[in-house]
Amino acid sequence: MTAEDSGRSRGRRTAEAARQTRASIIENAAEAFADTGYLQTSIRDLAQRSGLSTGAIYRHFRNKAELLGAVLREEMAAEVEEPAPRGPTDPFLPAVESAARRQDQRRRLRALLVQGAAAAPTDSETREQLRDEIAEHLDLWIDEWEQFREEFAIDPEVDLRAMVFYQWAAEVGLGLCEAMGLEPPAEGWPAASLRFARSWQLPPLAPQPEDRPDGSAPLT
């Protein structure tokens, strides 16, 4: 082996060690933020939990807010962002129901979102990190649904951005309920999710003037 080959080999080992260290920090942070609380967990706490120095963590992440962004990115990739549902017959609705039935797997993700949201009003850096991370994923999901609008028979008039936001709000709201010890009905939650998804395939229901308290025309 030449000196050049030896140097490349050492470089690969160093890069792999750095990747593993980063992954370990993210996993330990996810557990700590979800179980102990984002505000209650310091970089020093994470260093002790990971068996590292605080300097080692700062070599990978600029601050705790950036680490929260990395944690959410990993959690959403693992628990939410699966390949687009495909199948020979009506793959859309079964995929939505399946995702709803796996809601318990996303419990830690929801806990992390609740913890981040609790810190956001008084911590501008955490708020920006949380907002940017979630906005990026929402845009990806909306673009994906748009690509399959025709295949999934989603009505052309349905505002998919609003629907995805509504669906995401339900997921985050479930996290708030769980934080207070409130659990959704085991079978009722998937059924409700399925009914919501089925509504995507129907034309939007526009209220008539006589249905509005003041008799005015609906907003468009």
Structure write-up:
This protein is mainly α and 220 residues long. It has a domain at 63-204: Tetracycline Repressor, domain 2 (Orthogonal Bundle). The chain has helices at 3-35, 43-50, 54-60, 64-79, 92-101, 107-119, 124-147, 160-179, 188-199. The longest helix is centred in the N-terminal third of the chain and has 33 residues, at 3-35. It is elongated and about 70 Å long.
The CATH homologous superfamily of the domain at 63-204 corresponds to Tetracycline Repressor, domain 2
What is Rg? 22 Å
Mean of pLDDT: 86
What are the segments in which pLDDT stays under 50 over at least 5 consecutive residues? none
CATH 2nd-level architecture of the domain at 63-204: Orthogonal Bundle
Number of strands: 0
Give the N-to-C terminal Cα separation: 71 Å
Series of H and E elements: HHHHHHHHH
- CATH class categorisation of the domain at 63-204: Mainly Alpha
Q: Main β-sheet, in a few words? A: none
Strand proportion:
under 5%
- Can you count the helices? 9
- Structural class assignment: mainly alpha
Secondary structure: helix percent: 55-70%
Q: CATH fold name of the domain at 63-204, please?
A: Tetracycline Repressor, domain 2
